[in-house]
């Protein structure tokens, strides 16, 4: 038994109440608007207690809402995404996506990640990448189609590996200059085209910290909308080599004894899940 799943970890639970897909609203139907702009989401002070603070309940009005992306149905409302200008999104009541995610329930995390992915897709695929004609959204799937050459443009998902490198008495954790002061985390990197997840894991670990690993164990995945990653989480056992930093990406990396870990990433992140589940498994052996 390698680990037991933690019920509070986002996206380990199948959703029961979110129907994903570009559905068609009817005039006057109850909907909820999600206001997105430049990585921020507006707080809308919902008067309805059942809805999170970032969803504005209203009724569908084709004159105002026809161009908005419909992301699916939740709590008997269609959820619509409005993409605001960066200037509007700079105002005070627009917290960053990260701060909303870190306080979200597992189900809300999924909605936020989906909305962020669809908003950036809608913003970035207005013209065909092959012939530069303006694209149009399809009604039957999340894609924007070119009316001239029929190329379809889908929301992007960028697979990444994220891995906890361990040995019997210590964890190899690293920090990037982008992290909050004092925080160390697991290693991560994008999978290149043509590469398997496992090949990417060996390559990234070697590039970033210079060590060899083996005995890979897949633990689970998490959508991470910065901007549209899918993190595939592994444990990897240390096999040899001394730490050598890739200095452009990694500011520091160290072996931390299991009982002397540094400040770790927040509980909602898969990096933390990889660490916590390892400690649980290790202490139960
Ligand atoms: Zn085209």
From TrEMBL:
Superkingdom to which the source organism belongs: Bacteria
A biological process from GO: NAD+ catabolic process
GO cellular component, one term: cytosol
Domain Nudix hydrolase positions: 155-279
Gene3D superfamilies: 3.90.79.20, Nucleoside Triphosphate Pyrophosphohydrolase
Reactions the enzyme catalyzes: a 5'-end NAD(+)-phospho-ribonucleoside in mRNA + H2O = a 5'-end phospho-adenosine-phospho-ribonucleoside in mRNA + beta-nicotinamide D-ribonucleotide + 2 H(+)
Listed EC numbers: 3.6.1.22
EC class: hydrolase
InterPro entries, A to Z: NAD-cap_RNA_hydrolase_NudC, NudC-like_C, NUDIX_hydrolase-like_dom_sf, NUDIX_hydrolase_CS, NUDIX_hydrolase_dom, Znr_NADH_PPase
Annotated keywords: Hydrolase, Magnesium, Metal-binding, NAD
Record GO terms (molecular function): metal ion binding; NADH pyrophosphatase activity
Pfam families: NUDIX, Zn_ribbon_NUD
SUPFAM superfamilies: Nudix (SSF55811)
Cofactor(s) needed by this chain: Mg(2+); Zn(2+)
Family label: Belongs to the Nudix hydrolase family. NudC subfamily.
Protein name, per record: NAD(+) diphosphatase
């Amino acid at each position: 038994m390698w680990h037991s799943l933690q019920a509070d970890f986002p996206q380990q639970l199948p959703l029961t109440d979110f129907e994903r897909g570009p559905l068609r609203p009817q005039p006057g139907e109850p909907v909820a608007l999600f206001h997105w702009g430049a990585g921020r989401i507006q707080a809308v002070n919902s008067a309805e207690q059942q809805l999170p603070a970032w969803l504005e309940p209203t009724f569908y009005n084709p004159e105002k809402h026809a161009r908005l992306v419909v992301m699916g149905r939740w709590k008997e409302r269609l959820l619509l995404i409005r993409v605001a200008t960066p200037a509007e999104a700079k105002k005070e009541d627009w917290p960053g996506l990260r701060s909303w995610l870190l306080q979200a329930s597992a189900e809300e995390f999924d909605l936020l990640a989906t909305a962020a992915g669809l908003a950036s897709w809608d913003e970035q695929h207005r013209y065909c990448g092959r012939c530069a004609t303006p694209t149009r959204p399809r009604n039957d799937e999340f894609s924007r189609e070119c009316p001239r050459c029929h190329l379809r443009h889908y929301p992007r998902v960028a697979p990444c590996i994220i891995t906890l490198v361990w040995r019997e008495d210590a964890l190899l954790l690293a920090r990037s200059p982008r992290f909050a002061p004092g925080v160390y985390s697991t290693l991560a990197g994008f999978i290149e085209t043509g590469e398997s997840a496992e090949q990417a894991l060996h390559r990234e670990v070697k590039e970033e910290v210079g060590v060899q690993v083996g005995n890979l164990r897949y633990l689970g995945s998490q959508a991470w909308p910065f901007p549209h990653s899918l993190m595939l989480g592994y444990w990897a056992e240390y096999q040899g080599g001394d730490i050598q930093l890739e200095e452009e990406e990694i500011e520091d990396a160290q072996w931390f004894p299991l009982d002397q870990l540094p400040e770790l990433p927040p509980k909602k992140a898969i990096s933390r899940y990889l660490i916590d589940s390892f400690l649980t498994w290790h202490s139960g052996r």
